[in-house]
Amino acid sequence: MLTKALSNECLLISVMTSTSSRVGVEGATTDILVKRCAEMSRKLRFFKDQISKAGLLSSVRPVTQPDVELEELEIQLAEHENELIEMNANSEKLRQSYNELLEFKIVLQKAGSFLVSSGTHAVSERELDENVYSNDDYVDTASLLEQVEKTVFVVFFSGEQAKSKILKICEAFGASFYPVPEDITKQRQITREVSSRLDELEVTLDAGIRHRNKALASIGVHLVKWISMVRREKAVYDTLSMLNFDVTKKCLVGEGWCPIFAKAQLQAALQRATFDSNSQVGIIYHVMDAAESPPTYFRTNKFTNAFQEIVDAYGVARYQESNPSVYTVITFPFLFAVMFGDWGHGICLLLGALVLIARESKLGTQKLGSFMEMLYGGRYVLLLMSLFSIYCGLIYNEFFSVPYHIFGLSAYKCRDTTCSEAKTTGLVKYQDPYAFGVDPSWRGSRSELPFLNSLKMKMSILLGVAQMNMGIILSYFNARFFGSSLDIRYQFVPQIIFLNSLFGYLSLLIIIKWCTGSQADLYHVMIYMFLSPTEDLGENQLFWGQRPLQIILLLLAMIAVPWMLFPKPFILKRLHTERFQGRTYGILATSETDLEVEPDSARHYDEDFNFSEVFVHQMIHSIEFVLGAVSNTASYLRLWALSLAHSELSTVFYEKVLLLAWGYDNLVIRLVGLAMFAFATAFILLMMETLSAFLHALRLHWVEFQNKFYHGDGYKFRPFSFATLTEDED
């Protein structure tokens, strides 16, 4: 089966290696090494933050340098960190001294001007709360990183007791005190000394910043390589810490999953590792039996990966379960195109997809935004959607909602010359049907909308019933592969009978009506198939023997419901009773193959078998399928609804925007109309409608198709890889 070929089997393997190959450095255990790598990662993050704060850029492409050992790198990082911490501490002390001197200088200036102005008249003795001088001019303290606004104030007081209170209040509010002599000459002398000291500190600070930036630049050259090296080493030691010692404490034992196709590669890699490490003991490779379900792994390429991701977003396939992505590659873009059918819009999507594919080597190395990354990842999905949109657009005969005579002349012509412009009456068929797709003469006719509605609605039902049948057939292949005859007899058979007795029969009636040109009312046929199955069909009869066939199909559908519900739970109960009758203990499974001997038995349940739970589960599953057969078929009518909406929107924009503007003999109005038409086409029809059709096609696959056979309760095979490491793992 094709889907099984893509579902690669995984083996549980055990690897035993000597501790001398790669257990530690200088006798350290892997746990200590992991902590050391984490500490180095912290230092590298510290360097990165310092480089970012300094406004420098770390080199994306580091210069070529000889490889360093982990221990040597650890020493280098410690030296660089100590150097940076020391430079930061010295710079902070100098900056603090600079700020204090600058404050002192400004205080001297403000106090000097105040004392000079107040010396011309006597200052009377006042209360303490009135002896506060506040300067409204805020001082910008010069700091190389930030500016702090402060206020210079003067307090006059009398007595030591008042002085001590004022000092305590100032200390509580974090105010700084500076001695200001009353003598103007001394003030000027102190100001000159402070200014000289400030100039020296500025020179020292500038030199320190240049030295610090030079040190950061030298680190930034190698930062990317160091981060990558430490990240990889930490990942290796994290993996090694998962290994266990054997009983002799001389060998390490590791268990892991391996795809069957990679067995030879893995063994070769282990042998190469043994040789490179000069190990005294060879590596022992052993395939083990696993009690747990293996992980799921699918080999994909750049074309199929996006489709696999669409399926995995619903749920990862159970181990060796049929993979829906094999069919999704075709059905997903096709159902999208059924809703988006317009070969003009399809060409626009095709051009966008071709641009992304042509530049994939360049875009793959760039960091894209979320929207562009989504488009780039789904470029091949977009390619197929555009190709199928062109195909369906040719069937609908719509090019930006305009029909063309691409495949020959119309099969209809006017009855006489009086209807040459009307297109609403008088058309008669005079030759064979139009070669491919919808006849362009339907465009603008009175019966255009009823004809297209009928066509697209019936086509939606046919596509939906076909895809649901395919899902049920895939459940048969799943059951046959896992050897579950119960699922084949009491799940697949009644489901296929129930679905096709009702909606398969409806599809047959649609095809017969198309082939014969009958005017039978299919709504009447299906409704009275349930209400009055024995009533004569009259003019609604499409073929001989239709009424007895309807009675038989209705009986089969009624029988299929209890067929799905009752037999399987009771058979499982009987098998469980027979297996454990007269036993105190159950059978202990010795290998994976034991489960394959009797796949229909109750061994899977063992002592946990609960008949009520099994019966309720089967009842829910049966009711869900019966009701889902109706709702899922109705859900496929969204193909008709969205196709109609897309076509009508295109028609409105073409007729009410472009043609209306083109009717004016004014260049400006025409350009405005063309711009509005282009804007509506690009943002509404090519973006919003594309997203809408994509989401509806996604729902049809996840709910209507995959729920017939796909469990999606597995988990991915995630091999160790340096390429998957991210910054979150530092």
From TrEMBL:
The keyword Transmembrane applies. The lineage of its organism: Eukaryota, Viridiplantae, Streptophyta, Embryophyta, Tracheophyta. It is found in: Membrane. Essential component of the vacuolar proton pump (V-ATPase), a multimeric enzyme that catalyzes the translocation of protons across the membranes. Required for assembly and activity of the V-ATPase. InterPro entries: V-ATPase_116kDa_su, V-type_ATPase_116kDa_su_euka. Belongs to the V-ATPase 116 kDa subunit family. Keywords: Coiled coil, Hydrogen ion transport, Ion transport, Membrane, Transmembrane, Transmembrane helix, Transport. The keyword Membrane applies. The chain crosses the membrane at residues 332-357, 378-396, 459-479, 491-512, 549-566, 667-688. GO terms for molecular function: ATPase binding; proton-transporting ATPase activity, rotational mechanism. It comes from the Eukaryota. It is a multi-pass membrane protein. One of its GO terms (cellular component) is vacuolar proton-transporting V-type ATPase complex. It comes from Carya illinoinensis (Pecan). PANTHER family: V-TYPE PROTON ATPASE SUBUNIT A1, VACUOLAR PROTON ATPASES. This is V-type proton ATPase subunit a.
